[in-house]
Amino acid sequence: MERRRYDLNFKKMVVAKGKEIGNMTAAARQHELDPKMVLRWARQLERKDLDQLDDSALKQPTFIPSAADYAALEKEHEKLKKLYAEQALEREILRDLLKKTNPHLRIK
To answer: DSSP state, 60?
Structure first.
């Protein structure tokens, strides 16, 4: 089932009708909506969380990386690659050492 999205004006209209009637559940049922969703819309309207209510936060990214961010990520990536290579070399050295000291425990 696909999730439906409602625009801000519709949400305001349903909440206003619920306040007018005095029963948000009845207003939700008139529009074939979940009462919990309408109550959440009413709370968000009271708190003035219109950006969450209008789903505009989903449409626009909140973080746009800059060139400096990319440079920092590249630097961290190179550092991690070096660390990984060092650990791989250390594992190989330990395997060779294990082969030399305990020939009956050879790792294939």
So the answer is: S
Q: Which of 26-30, 63-67, 75-79 is predicted least confidently?
A: 63-67
Whether pTM exceeds 0.70? no
Please report, as a single letter, which amino acid is at residue 69.
D
Q: How many CB atoms lie within 10 A of CB 94?
A: 11
Q: Measuring CA to CA, how many Å separate 88 from each of 79, 92, 107? A: 14, 6, 16
Assess contact for 27 and 17: CB atoms under 8 A: yes
Q: Tell me which long-range contacts 38-41 makes (C-beta under 8 A, separation of at least 24).
A: 38/14, 41/11, 41/14, 41/15
